[in-house]
Amino acid sequence: MIPSAYAPSANIANGFHALSEPLRIKILEILRQQECCVAQLCSALDISQSKLSFHLKVLKDAELVHARHEGRWIHYSLNLPRFALLQDYLAQYHDFSHRKTESYQHQSA
């Protein structure tokens, strides 16, 4: 059994799940350039509003995007601190790999 200290939190798992769909990656790429409303995203991606809404919900549930209401429109933008959380999680693996490589090189010398 894996100790709970080593199990990723639900926030981490939800974030990577949200990133596992190519269409959601395309949405994030557009939002990386600018804040957009649903109509702009539908047009840019050439998809229906219902399909986009499903994917935006996954991204919102993972807290990767913010939704800002302005009148009857909802504008979406990236939630950069959530991406930083995922980056920090992955950095632990980079650090671990780097230490293992150094240890191996030291033992071989």
Write a brief caption for the model.
With 109 residues, the chain is of the alpha+beta class. It has helices at residues 10-18, 22-33, 38-45, 49-61, 80-108, and strands at 36-37, 65-70, 73-78. It has a 3-stranded antiparallel beta sheet with strand order 1-3-2.
Topology:
Elements: H1 10-18, H2 22-33, E1 36-37, H3 38-45, H4 49-61, E2 65-70, E3 73-78, H5 80-108
Antiparallel strand pairs: 1-3, 2-3
Explain this structure to me?
It holds the Pfam family HTH_5. InterPro entries: ArsR-like_HTH, HTH_ArsR_DNA-bd_dom, Metal_resp_trans_reg, WH-like_DNA-bd_sf, WH_DNA-bd_sf. One of its GO terms (molecular function) is DNA binding. The protein is α+β, with helices and mostly antiparallel strands. It has a single domain (10-108), classed as Orthogonal Bundle (Arc Repressor Mutant, subunit A), CATH 1.10.10. 65% of the residues lie in helices and 13% in strands. The chain has helices at 10-18, 22-33, 38-45, 49-61, 80-108; strands spanning 36-37, 65-70, 73-78. It has a 3-stranded antiparallel β-sheet with strand order 1-3-2. It is elongated and about 45 Å long. The two termini are 35 Å apart. The model has no long low-confidence stretch (mean pLDDT 86).
